[in-house]
Amino acid sequence: MSEHDRETVELPETIELPRLLDFYELQTAEHTGIHEFYENLRAGTLTTTSCRDCGDLQFPPRVVCPECHSDELEYVELPDEGELFAFSTVRAGAPLGMESEVPFVTGIVEVGDVRLSSRIDGADYDELEIGDPVSLKIVEIEGGADHERVFFRFEPRA
């Protein structure tokens, strides 16, 4: 085959992410056992699971207790305000679909008896200190699914 016989192909301007590379999971009862977490979040409440048998509190929510292996879990409300325990800036290596958003701050937030990782919106790294008060921020996720999706972030408390 000579170079004159080659076919030319064009690359698309945008590439749809394969479902497996979508950072946010599908959130309906059909797709996940923790759909109640997303339903609560959609209603404005951050929740997690607590074991009715041993009392263990887990985050993220579970369908089986990692301590006693019971499936007797209940959803409990977490505070919508917390404190920044640790933080860093993502400057490179962001998840697919978030590359254009760098740099952004991520952190560990203490809410009640739970420490969770979260993106911290509304502040640059240099503006934050460990111990800063933060508030829950719920964001809607567009695209990638045939149903509405939400997720949580935190932002400095005003």
Automatic annotation (TrEMBL):
Pfam families: OB_ChsH2_C, zf-ChsH2. Residues 75-137 form the ChsH2 C-terminal OB-fold domain. It comes from the Archaea. Residues 41-74 form the ChsH2 rubredoxin-like zinc ribbon domain. PANTHER family: BLR3430 PROTEIN (PTHR34075:SF5). This is Zn-ribbon domain-containing OB-fold protein. The lineage of its organism: Archaea, Methanobacteriati, Methanobacteriota, Stenosarchaea group, Halobacteria. Gene3D superfamilies: 6.10.30.10.
